[in-house]
Amino acid sequence: MIKNKTLVCIVGPTAIGKTNIGIELAEHFNTEILSADSRQLYKEMSVGTAKPSQTELNRVKHHFINHISITKDYSVGDFEREAIQLIETLFQKKDFLFLVGGSGLFVNAIINGLDDIPEIEYNIRAKINKEFDEQGITFLQKKLETTDPKAFESIDVKNPRRLIRAIEVFEQTGKSITDFRKRKPKKRNFNIISIGINTEREKLYERINSRVDKMIEEGLLNEVKKLIQFKHYQALKTVGYKELFPFLEETENLEYCIEKIKKNTRNYAKRQITWFKKNENLKWFDNSATYIKKDILDYIIKKSRYNF
Predict the structure, then answer these.
(1) pLDDT tens, 230-247?
(2) What is the average pLDDT across 113-130?
(3) Distance between CA 3 and CA 191 in Å, rounded?
(4) What is the pLDDT of residues 15-25, one digit of tens each?
(5) Would you tell me how many other CB atoms lie within 10 Å of the CB of residue 42?
(6) Residues 281, 2: Cα–Cα separation, whole Å
(7) CA dist., res. 174 & res. 197, Å (int)
């Protein structure tokens, strides 16, 4: 038992300001941050994933940023295994740690643990990804509805990653992905405080649109151009990257592609909010509030003392 240790999870939609808040809070507690962002993991993807700047990384030590190459397979199961091991190691010298990010599956893997789903064979995964690339999401939706209607009714079939995951599990095991869901979460041997950051939808959308414009100014197009040869990798099927491939292939104009990034990012933010609102233990804070960081700090201190 790691006695009297607390993991603070800072979650919320993209562009809401989690990075800045997480860094300032981690500085206060003289501790470190584990990133729960499924794309900031990759060394080659920086501008389009809104990684912390080098200055920010120098302020607080981060883990799971620039962790692997896009050419390597890395699952949420890999993340759970490595992150839990690291958390237990860091708690030998730290009383608090911060988990910061907006990838719901990564956060859930740490808080509740993953379902015991068998590893998927490479040829099965490659075949399904090829079907998605060549025939699109509608084809996969119809495929899942036919082969596994139970999963079709229970997952977000508009999310390609979840759709592909459900199909590959069925093809690997002959069972629905819903059959592997645990009834009880794993028991972690440390305290967990979950904090959500959000704001009014209109303000969030303004932040998203401004961030996309900033990414373009900072060289997103050049970054995507360098990665176009890897576009068939799962890591590149990501908002901010996939929308620019048509421009580079001269099938769409740049203005259209940028607007599509903004639209898809807004839709992604909505899905993130929906996901995190399922966590009844999550305390929400409005990032437009003047004293948000102080309010969060007071809440962490109060909650951690209560847990102890």
Answers:
(1) 998 889 989 999 999 999
(2) 85
(3) 9
(4) 999 999 999 99
(5) 26
(6) 21
(7) 39
Domain of residue 36, CATH code: 3.40.50.300
Amino acid letter at 74?
Y
Write out the residue range of the structural domain in which residue 22 sits.
6-114+184-307
pLDDT at residue 4, as a whole number: 86
CATH number of domain containing 162: 1.10.20.140
Same-domain status, 153 and 65: no
Domain boundary at 180, 205, 226, which? 180
Contact criterion met (CB below 8 Å) for 70 and 42? yes
What is the DSSP code string of the chain? --TT-EEEEEE-STTSSHHHHHHHHHHHTT--EEE--TTTTBTT--GGGTPPPHHHHHHS-EESSS-B-TTS---HHHHHHHHHHHHHHHTTT-SEEEEE---HHHHHHHHT----PPPPPHHHHHHHHHHHHHHHHHHHHHHHHHH-HHHHHHS-TTSHHHHHHHHHHHHHHSS-GGGG--SS----SSEEEEEEEE--HHHHHHHHHHHHHHHHHTTHHHHHHHHGGGTTSGGGSSTTTTTTHHHHTTSS-HHHHHHHHHHHHHHHHHHHHHHHTT-TTEEEEETTSTTHHHHHHHHHHHHHHHH-
More confident residue, 58 or 179: 58
Q: Would you say residue 148 has pLDDT above 90?
A: yes
pLDDT of 308 > 70? The answer is no
State whether 176 and 252 are in the same domain.
Answer: no
pTM over cut 0.90: no
How would residue 117 be classed by pLDDT, with cut points 50, 70 and 90?
confident
| 1 is a domain residue | no
- Six-digit token string for 81: 């295994």
How distant, in Å, are the alpha carbons of 10, 22, 52, 93 from that of 61?
Answer: 16, 11, 11, 14
